[in-house]
Amino acid sequence: MDGLNPRKVFSLLFIIGIAVVFTLQFGPGSTGFGASGPATTAPGSVATVNGKEIPLRDFATAWARQMNQLRAQGSPIPESVARQFGMHNQVLDRLVNTELLAQAAEQRGITPSDEELRKLIHQNTDFHAKEGGFDFARYQQVLRDFYRKTPQEFEGELRRQLAAQKMIEVVRSNAAVSEDEVRARYEKDGNQAKVVFARFLPTMYADKVAAPTAAQLAEWKKAHEKEIKDYFEANKFVYQQPERIRARQVLVKLPPEATAEQKAEALKKAEALKKELDGGKDFAAVARESSEDPGSKARGGDLGWVERGSWEPALANAAFSLKAGEVTPPVETKFGVHLVKVEEKQAAQDKKLEDVQDEIATTLFKQDRAKEQAKTEAQKALADAQAGKALKDLFPPEKEQPALLRFETETRPEAVQTDSFTAEGEAVPHLGPAPALAKAAFAASAPQVLGEVFPVGEGFVVAQVVERQKPDAAGFDQKKDALRTQAEQAKQIEVTDSFLKALKKNGNVVTNTEAIDSVVGAG
């Protein structure tokens, strides 16, 4: 699916995952740390879709699932930051899209069979007995104690998820492509280039820029009042933060239906681990050896920065009362028994623009000067390349490693050679969106240095085409089947995206921001 719009790829991921919204990722067997949905249905709803409510409980569950997935993937960002990036809107949008599709399926008489429903329920490991396989008694127990739903409620909601998936499949079945479309794709895919480029970033020159003098700072502030204000508004989450700690944890898990005996055993294990820590054993080592939280175990229990509201009150109160370097006694939550080490603390911040404008002005001043320096160095490199010097010789990499890893630690310009890419999109491999550079590369008929410095992101890029290939009509028959499959996949995403847009345009979707704020906090 080369050249597909990232937004459309996201739509496809939504389509693939829609049938398992309620069952496969957030049951008692899931692992998570921190916030979760309320145990019982809260009053109100987060949205109504053509008169059908989306309960607050469903949004809270989906939001908690999103946060837990980020933690499990090694990205334990605070919920306030997730909101800053609009993640709560993405969660709500998925629920709204699912409801719209379910309603569209109902209007068209599209319903899942009882066998399809049974199969999906039986696949859910939350409902499996310890020996393996679906167990009806456990199914009833988990629905009652964890999902807080009756079998009729759960199966009704799951049936709607399946109906929405079937609606998507019907829409996708209409995504036919013509021979002309396949040939056009071949013409695009056969038009290929390979380039070598070097990036010149302001960060590479920041340490060479001196801080402004008092007179320079005063003059810069006066001339850039809007930029300073815009920077402050865009980064308010940095200057206005709740109290938070950087923490590690060791977790001894407990099942949702843990008995008093199981709780006592978990507490005993946690107390033994606490003695090891009190004896001087490294916390990260203990976490790697003994923690039962898969999301943080491999990182030595590292949870990143955590806000008080992300945890249950008992655990938050215990951890936030400590000094940096101290470890809590064992604390029980619904996830298990925790030991938390506080590595760093940050007090709550509520800074105003006038408190930080000098700091912001200094930062922007230095960024501006560093950017000028980056552009100057790029122009020098272009002159050298046009004089016959290869970028690989001018800027050899310090060591061989994948380009993406190199960029994470890049401190100076380094020559990077791309794989072959096509003229279909505006992105350059290992560089990202660079429409002007891509256009210039495909305007070249043979290998050559591209005759300008290209602004890309915050920096500047110099590039040379090292390979150039144009479509070979004789190869069309060999690639036709594969190209047809790619074209059909792209068309399926397009028609699905259009169908969802039409449902929203012709429907009536009303959101309840107060209810959303009650789950994710007010922005």
Automatic annotation (TrEMBL):
Residues 242-344 form the PpiC domain. Keywords: Isomerase, Rotamase. Pfam families: Rotamase_3, SurA_N_3. Transmembrane segments: none annotated. SUPFAM superfamilies: FKBP-like (SSF54534), Triger factor/SurA peptide-binding domain-like (SSF109998). This is SurA N-terminal domain-containing protein. It comes from Myxococcus landrumensis.
